[in-house]
Amino acid sequence: MGDIGSGKHDLDGIVERGSLGVVIAPSQTYIRDAPGRLHGKAVDVAVALAAALSQRSGRYIGVDFFMKGDEELIPYLLAGGADIAANVRLTFARDEQVAFAPPIRTGIREFVVTRFDEPLVSLEDVGGRVIHVRKNSDHHLSLLRLNEQLVKINRPPARIVADENARTVADLTDEGLIDRVNDGRIPATLADDYIYDRWKKGLSFDRITVNRDVAVSQDSSISWVTRKDAPNWTAFVKEFFSTHKLTF
């Protein structure tokens, strides 16, 4: 679907429109197609958020989802394409742009996922390895920062393959990249610890590994975010996420 137009994005505007626009990056954990409907953790959260708004306003509020790449989430939100963006990693720069709700996940660690017979020994061991990530994703940015550090200590940088094309959209999710390492189609990727742990349980073959003592980044958090010029909607969202807990 296209964007939701140039209507108001504060609380009254959403209620008047009768629909909540949610922009989210593709993820097999958070949103996926199934016959007749969407499924996933973010879908559950959005439906609960819309239900809470419906109860507060006395009017039914539906949900529209818009799939965009990681780097497009905030620009799309700020341009008026949606009312809220899901699962945005907190950074100083983003905190200046948008309003962060209480996080749905904290203490996140980024691991390098490798084949079982090619485990990572240290962060320096990343040098020279071929690592596939989604182009312009947070994992891509983390690898770029790591490469800068490796160059400073005279170590070879990782060889980053920023994937843009795949046979299916699922192949370009974090979970799809984990699957591709497990299948032997790519040598390594990056994944958040909780995504890796959850997804690995469903793999048919145990051909991948991570070194839990080696994290590319740690103590990250992700939240749903709103526009700063929508104070009433932002207050409602912060209230909702202060009590709504996401389980995995």
Can you tell me about this structure?
The chain is α/β, with parallel strands linked by helices and 248 residues long. The chain contains 8 helices and 12 strands. The chain has helices spanning 11-17, 41-57, 73-78, 92-97, 138-152, 174-182, 193-200, 231-243, and strands spanning 19-24, 32-34, 37-39, 62-67, 84-89, 98-100, 105-115, 130-134, 159-163, 188-192, 208-209, 217-227. Strands 1, 4, 5, 6, 7, 10, 11 and 12 form an 8-stranded mixed β-sheet that branches. A two-stranded antiparallel ribbon has the order 2-3. Strands 8-9 form a two-stranded parallel ribbon. It starts with 10 loop residues before the first helix and ends in a 5-residue tail after the last helix.
Task: For the structure shown, list the relevant keywords.
248 residues; 8 helices; alpha/beta; D-Maltodextrin-Binding Protein, domain 2; eight-stranded mixed β-sheet
CATH superfamily of the largest domain: Periplasmic binding protein-like II
Output the CATH class name of the largest domain: Alpha Beta
Task: Report the CATH topology name of the largest domain.
Answer: D-Maltodextrin-Binding Protein, domain 2
Residue share in helix: 25-40%
Radius of gyration over alpha carbons? 19 Å
Share of residues in strands = 25-35%
Shape: elongated
SS-derived structural category: alpha/beta
Q: Overall mean pLDDT score? A: 89
Number of strands: 12
Largest sheet: 8 strands, mixed
Distance between the termini: 29 Å
From the coordinates shown, what is the CATH architecture of the largest domain? 3-Layer(aba) Sandwich
Low-confidence stretches: none
Task: Give helix and strand order, one letter per element, not per position.
Answer: HEEEHEHEHEEEHEHEHEEH
Tally of structural domains: 2
- By DSSP (H or I, 4+ residues per run), the number of helices equals 8
